[in-house]
Amino acid sequence: MNALIGQPINRVDGRLKVTGGAKYAAEFDMPGLVHATLVQSTIAAGTIIAIDSRDAEGMPGVLAVITPDNAEKLKLEKAGQEMVTRPLLQDAQIFYNGQPIAVVVADTLDRALAAAAAVKVTYRQGEAVTIMDSVLDQAYRPKHFRNGERSPDSNRGDADAAFDAAAAKVQATYTTPVEHHNPMEPHATVARWDGERLTVWTATQGIAGTQRTLATLFGVPVSSVRVICPFVGGGFGCKGNTWPPATLTAMAAQKVGRPVKLSLTRRQMYSSNGYRPRTVQKLRLAADAQGKLVAMRHDGLTQMSMPSLGEFAEPVGLATEMLYACPNVAVTHRLVAVNQGLPTYMRAPGEASGVFALESAMDELAVALKMDPVELRLRNDTDRDGHAEKPFSSRKLAECYREGAEAFGWSRRNPAPRSMRDGNALIGWGVATATYPANRRPASAAVRLNADGSVHVFSGTQDIGTGTYTVMSQVVADTLGVPLNRVRFLLGDSAYPPAPTSGGSTTVASVSPAVQAACAAVRQKLFGLVLADPETGGGFTAADLSLQNGAVYVPGRRLPLAQVLARAGVESVEAGASSGEAEGKAGYSLHSFGAQFAEVRVDPELGEIRVSRYVGAFDAGRILNAKTGRSQLIGGITYGIGMALLEATETDAETGRYVNANLAEYLVPVHPDVPTIQTIFVAGEDTQVDPLGARGIGELPMVGVAAAIANAVYHATGVRVRDLPIRLEQVLA
Ligand code: MOS
Hints:
The chain is of the alpha+beta class and 733 residues long. The chain is built from 17 helices and 31 strands.
């Protein structure tokens, strides 16, 4: 029964969001709440000699100034490296400009800010390396690539020999800049201790991870920590870890014995919760005269913080390993440490940067071969992942290209650069492939059927703005045969059955199987009540019963839920269930695909670049909600337009400080930057991933966008731009 799944249902939390009823972390208030703010390092490397907080402590309303001298010693040694982000006021070392070095707590935010300004810090300044490109020769091998589950390098065949011998080849270096996520909602935490029990209201993509991290650091049982996050105002990866400000808020609440709130300013969000690292990627691609790839080499250098802060390796080469049929492929990943904070996941981490390089190089190869770039992709299409050595569970890349090309009008393209014009404007058309893994992780859920016919479903997942509340409510309504308005889906509380972090496009594929299983379990329990009652169940089996519209149907009879529960003498029926990893994980390579088509208009005198038309066609399995799904595609493509043309965080080489840490100077796309985006979902389902056949689409639609736009800019102008973002001075050069 799938009356609702797939339908363009409005967000069930839409009204709450537009009326201000949706509560975000910083909006939780409680008696006795006081305010904290960070003091941040003003140097990029060195040590703190002394922090003089006497003046600050004497100011009105100030409750505490927490510094490395008086901070609680956290159980860092117990924590797995991947869970904990540093620094946490545990020592006097400075690794980057903007590093938190003290926390000031006062009865009002204004008083906390005033006192923070009065904290005097003296440093011993060390030698800082602030610019990655000045130390590329010091690149090193990641130690925990993909959590240590694989090597940072891979090799099949002999890419270098095949390259040397090939008929057509390209070799180029591509760079992508540091970018910041910039969700609308700032990172904010409210923390309260009740004896040994800690409750935090925090903006996070992973309540379970935050719960575990805080329990470990403060040395309390996991069950003593509760993390609550009903709404997230955008995350894009920067709310995937438990960053220092959240931990320091809990530390401050412990110190002052009162609930504490800490909400970051926009500027602080540039130095406190990761960023997409800068990449320098060398690509070598070679093909035979027919355009069949014979060699691919992708050597990726990505920016890292000083190793003391942990490790994050942007996996730029993973798509190169699997995207096309090619017998000789070599990929390496290396890190380059600078005095910046720890980088992190940002929407399509790895693929967004890596596929920009790969799909730009593919376009250059098409030019070298004098072949249509769509045709080049189709010639190298494959139903097998050459790296994993498994078939793809489902791959409809060719359909994406066909349907996208048709919608875009690709056949009308004149391949010569600078050949298409509209009035004075140069018109360019470019394409690129999108791909992203179809991830799924274990999850759990619980369902309660109430006598009034309402259904409450609980799962410790998150809705990071993507539509989890809505889509899961649809799954419940269809699975149990109840109207959507009788379903209440509750999430964002670690008291609920655990679910994975909402990162890596996992939520739909992970949580929906648990929800379906919990619904099936509760239905079975309900049927058990009917069958156990001789008056209603006599002679029937569960197969004879059905649950629809708030009633159990027994042959010849309709039993409203209230009646079943009353006869059984219970107020509700509850059941829980867990689900595991993707069914087809062992036998198949699980990925989504897409084809990105961009049109740009370039002013030949001014170099101004506008994306004027856009078509994206995607193979993402079954789409559970056509409206929220389309919103994801539009959002991802918009994010990609930002990557292509606007976004870059600039560092002052001297101080290591970000110079555009605000939304006025860090450019993101606004309405005039975004054309009407035509989106296409290629029909399909992938039940190797999950029973509903759905694959996550949070990251997929932004992959390849920057390449499609760069390729369109080449087609319009004849100028190949290999360094993002593409700016007018580059096309005028
Ligand atoms: Mo995503 S970058 O895994 O939130």
